[in-house]
Amino acid sequence: MLINIILTTLKCSNLIQKDTVCRIHLKLSRFFVQRRYSSSLLGNLNNMVSKADCTGAGGPCKLRVNNIVKSEFDKREYRGLELQNGMKVVLISDPTTDKSAAALDVNIGYLCDPKELPGLAHFCEHMLFMGTETYPAENEYNKFLSEHSGYSNAYTSADHTNYHFEVSPDHLEKALDIFSKFFICPLFEAGSTEREVNAVNLEHDKNIPNDTWRLDQLDKSTCDPNHDYNRFGTGNKETLDTIPKSKGMNVRDELLKFHDKWYSSNIMGFAILGKESLDDLEKMVADKFKDVKNKNVKTPVWNTHPYGKDQLKTKTYVTPVKDLRSLLVTFPIPDLQDQHKSGPDSYLAHLIGHEGPGSLLSELRKRSWCNSLVGGPRHGAKGFAFFTVTVDLTLDGIEHADDIVELIFQYMKLLHDEGPQEWIFNEYKELLDIEFRFKEKEKPSSYVSYLCPNLFLYPLEEILVGTYMLTEYKPDLIRDLLDRLTPENMRLAVVGKQFEPKCDQTEPWYGTKYTREKLSDEQLKKFENVTSNSAFHLPQPNEFIATDFTLLAPDSDIAPHPTIMYNSPLIRAWLKQDDEYKVPKLNASFEFISPYAYLDPECTNMTHLFISLFKDALNEYSYDAKLASLGWDLNNTKYGMMLNISGYSHKQSVLLSKVLDKLVEFSKNIDPKRYEIIKEQYARGLKNFEAEQPYQHAIYNISLCLFERAWSKTDLMESLDGITREKLSEFANELLSKMFIEALIHGNANKEIAMGIVKMLEEKLQTQLKTKPLLPSQVLRFREIKLPNSKCSVLSQVLRFREIKLPNSKCS
Questions:
Q1: What confidence tens digit (pLDDT) does each residue in 477-504 have?
Q2: CATH class of the region 563-778
């Protein structure tokens, strides 16, 4: 399905849906790979490539690259190909895989739609699934995949279209044969056209209440009207049926023209993962795809930016569907993909989006103006990009939007004054080196879908490492990019319910209410003439970066399953030493079971608030750990709280000790300002659930029906007002006073190290919190409703959606 998401909103959970995130393969900030690989891994790339005809002169393959750079612990085998028809291919052989997968990426998207037919590229994506000359049945493809433990998906973005599938390994070749015919002999039957127009229309209808889609389209609809970016990429029944018919256009004929013009093998990239050998995969791919026509298509490049002078120095007020508050500061920048080895955009994204002491986020949170912030590059299409700072605002923050913009430029002044820092660049070279070296195995379908676009971005031998391979420190490029982030070269957008009365314009495709005004000279001067702010400083060196990657010798006998290594009235700890992955990583999970956590709606609310405030308080300290791939999380469960620590084992005990120290003292030090902000944010989230998609309501209501004890959103909302900071502090003490901890430690740890972790936890709880163990009868698990056999029950619910009125759209 069509995807074009504002990338810099990904960390702002209020602005993006999880189902959208899981379909996107991206890194907001590419870090910087350091040349610390062994000679067998990187060496001299120029001498690594073995190039030869695959099958001799006239064969289906004209180029083979055998020595693709891969990470140290990647046991899969790779080969790059270029077929005679110009299609680029990466083969992945994994004899241990439980699923096979393949993906094909066409290097054009909806920016190539005819102006009079918005959504045609997306419609073409849909129609390719509807039968081919070899397999004419409409559901042949999906039927075969569903019968063999598989599935398929696709999406259309601004400048590429991606198709992918997954299937059981024994049925890869047949699935590939059906799939390949999409690009050789599609039918585009007239009888299928109307049904798929309706499918596209339903997809658009589903997206209409989604604020992420609405903001993304508003960005396009308010750019230069003569630019191809000024498009409605999804399409709907109006653009693909009603308007074309009124103009005497045959959409099927236009679809055939579009496919014939753009679907060319020389702008296609293909990736396949299977249990077969590389030679067998190569033979399979060459046989299936050799007949895809090469039309020698040249893909467009949009060197003119969609933000012209009329679109800059503006401030847009937007009314959201949900109760959201956010500030978006956007700067037009050139497409920097050809500078991926120096990454000036990634360098600035790392600093502007930093969350540690002295950062922009740190200062905004101290002023109680902000919940979260993310800054970084956003791809537009080939030739242009954006640099965006997105701030999730508090109630007070939305009243200080201009002051926040001023702070952003004060921080940029710091970056100007300090200049590019090679030590920061080198530190992240090390981080990315580590990340690539110990990269974990991806889900097959996600992996091949992600690799396909990379075939257009990097040489075949760098297809895996290219995203990590930023090796050239170029301070001049950093300065040049920073010089573009100015008030004169900026667009502002402020999103909030309070602006509804002044929003007198309507975006035509989603019905988003907005109003736009030019920034005054006074505002621009205020932003341009900022002074230094002593609260800001560059980050300190990251002390959490692991340097010891020693794999610990296993104990004499490693059990195949976790075994109990410690059992006391307070803690039961399980250990599973890693004997499969053999990487220097450790995962430690602790479930704090307390009968108070889910006792009633009020207790449930207080557990959630306590955890949210605790994570909020530790964010600044733990941000460096997160950058170093050392993560921690604390979440509420129906039984209490779940603490997870994961990452490289070397520095993990340092982080765990700090988290536990904070936990045992936190109830005495709940910040009153952060309490009010977090409570309001939580209440808003409960209320905003009403605007979620119907399927999410269905899943939620199933849990209410089946669980023995479950509190509805209404129950939680009604019990929230009676909670005070003092009451929460008392509850936190009670929550931690009696409990039972179930622990699991897995990875690069022997019994001695694991026992040290468990004993540290037990000692802190018993000596500092005086925690007492629960009685065995109190450690109970909730039951679920047993459904009667041969009976069916239906729960119906009317959803209260806000009605969104769309204007009469115009398409010329």
A1: 999 999 999 999 999 999 999 999 999 9
A2: alpha beta
